[in-house]
């Protein structure tokens, strides 16, 4: 589990939390913090806003928190950019791969309490492969949680690559 300190950083753990600087006290004007959240390969990131208070504006052009589906803002799709005095609805977001980029940007004027969020690894996602690998169900070799629902998309690096899946062990209830 990981808990950050300061303004941004790399969080490489199956679960943890992040928050704006000084939370629950106001963040600083001109803060520009970025976090890369990384869970194990073949999982995705589940990100949950717990508390949220960032200077409101109709298009979030002053202060905001943004989530990107990948390791950076320049090459990863934007999932959400949010501001205001309450968490987005819904407040839970998923990456498609094992990395999520989070940026909190503040301008030079009004500051607010900021945000608190938790993250954890979630099963499923997209796997890009150019070699062999292993994929296991959550908690393997121990029983899977009741009601578990996971799906993966396995792709080669190019559109002409072919993926072969070989099951080496399967144990289903009667």
What would a concise description of this structure say?
The chain is mainly β and 174 residues long. The protein is 0% helix and 40% strand. It contains no helices and 12 strands.
Layout: helices, strands, pairs:
Blueprint: E1 2-3, E2 9-12, E3 15-19, E4 32-38, E5 43-53, E6 64-68, E7 78-82, E8 92-94, E9 99-105, E10 114-123, E11 125-129, E12 152-156
Parallel strand pairs: 1-3, 2-4, 11-12
Antiparallel strand pairs: 3-10, 4-9, 5-8, 5-10, 6-7, 6-9
Low-confidence stretches: none
Strand content: 35-45%
Structural category: mainly beta
Q: What's the helix count?
A: 0
Number of E-type strands: 12
Main sheet record: 5 strands, mixed
Mean pLDDT: 89
Output the radius of gyration. Answer: 19 Å
Instruction: Record the strand order, biggest sheet.
Output: 1-3-10-5-8
Task: Kindly state the percentage of residues in helix.
Answer: under 10%
Order of helices and strands: EEEEEEEEEEEE
């Amino acid at each position: 589990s990981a808990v950050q300190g300061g303004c941004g950083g790399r969080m490489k753990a199956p679960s943890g939390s992040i928050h704006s600087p000084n939370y629950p006290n106001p963040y600083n004007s001109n803060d520009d913090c970025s976090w890369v959240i990384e869970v194990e390969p073949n999982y995705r990131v589940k990100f949950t806003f717990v508390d949220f208070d960032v200077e409101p504006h109709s298009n979030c052009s002053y202060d905001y928190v943004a989530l990107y589906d990948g390791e950076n803002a320049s090459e990863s799709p934007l999932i959400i950019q949010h501001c205001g005095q309450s968490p987005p609805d819904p407040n839970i977001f998923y990456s498609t791969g094992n990395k999520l980029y989070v940026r909190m940007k503040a301008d030079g004027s009004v500051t607010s309490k900021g945000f608190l969020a938790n993250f954890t690894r979630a099963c499923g996602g997209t796997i890009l492969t150019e070699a062999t690998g292993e994929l296991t169900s959550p908690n393997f070799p121990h029983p899977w949680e009741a009601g578990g629902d996971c799906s993966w998309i396995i792709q080669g690096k190019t559109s002409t690559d072919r993926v072969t899946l070989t099951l080496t062990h399967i144990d289903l209830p009667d």
